[in-house]
Every structure is written in structure tokens, then in C-alpha cells.
Amino acid sequence: MPYVTSVRYISGYRLEVTFSDGTKGEVDLSGELYGRLFEPLKDINEFRKVRVENDLSTIVWPNGADLAPDYLYELMQVQEHAVEGSH
């Protein structure tokens, strides 16, 4: 499974994520911010602090929240297909 090589904040709860296989796209995490670790990320200023943690090969936030790279990859694919299907 590809790992995350870069992340860029776009707006709202959307990020541009690049994976080791060259796949690059947007992922909307607005529906994923629940639970003790993720609730603080509803504060957009905290959400924007996202970065790549090379040891984990995925994105992390200063409060310790992270998302598995395979989950991000799959979520990005599902969201892109949903957008394509709505046109």
C-alpha cells in the first residue's frame, strides 16, 4: 500500500495528499473528525497544522491524531468517484 509523501492544506477540512505511487488528490476529512483525538481538529487552526510524519508514513497533527495511509488512499478514491458520478 502506498504511503503519504506530502500533504497541503487547501481549505475547510480539505487536504491535498500525495502518495508514494504518484497518486495525488484531494480528501475531505470533514466527516472524519470524531472521537477524543479528532474533535480538537474541528478547530480549523488546529486542523491546518497537519504534516507528514515520515516514521509513520502518513499525516499527523500536533495532538497525536493520525490517519492510516491506506485509509486516506481509499477515502480519496471513494470521494473522487463520488464527484465524478455527480457530474
Short description:
By secondary structure, this protein is an alpha+beta fold.
Q: Would you mind describing this structure in some detail?
A:
The chain has 87 residues and is α+β, with helices and mostly antiparallel strands. It has one domain (4-85): NE0471-like N-terminal domain (NE0471 N-terminal domain-like), CATH 3.30.2020. It has two helices and six strands. A three-stranded antiparallel β-sheet has the order 1-2-3, covered by helices on one side. Strands 4-5-6 form a three-stranded antiparallel β-sheet. Strand 1 (4-11) and strand 2 form a beta hairpin. The protein is globular, with a radius of gyration of 12 Å. The mean pLDDT is 94.
CATH fold title: NE0471 N-terminal domain-like
Count the strands?
A: 6
Strand order of the largest sheet: 1-2-3
The arrangement of helices and strands along the chain is EEEHEEEH
Which stretches are poorly predicted, pLDDT < 50 over at least 5 residues? none
Q: CATH homologous superfamily name? A: NE0471-like N-terminal domain
Helix content: 10-25%
Average pLDDT for all residues: 94
Profile the largest sheet: 3 strands, antiparallel
Strand-helix topology:
Blueprint: E1 4-11, E2 14-19, E3 24-28, H1 44-47, E4 51-53, E5 58-60, E6 66-67, H2 69-85
Antiparallel strand pairs: 1-2, 2-3, 4-5, 5-6
Core attributes:
single chain, 87 residues, alpha+beta, NE0471 N-terminal domain-like, three-stranded antiparallel beta sheet, 6 strands, 31% strand, globular
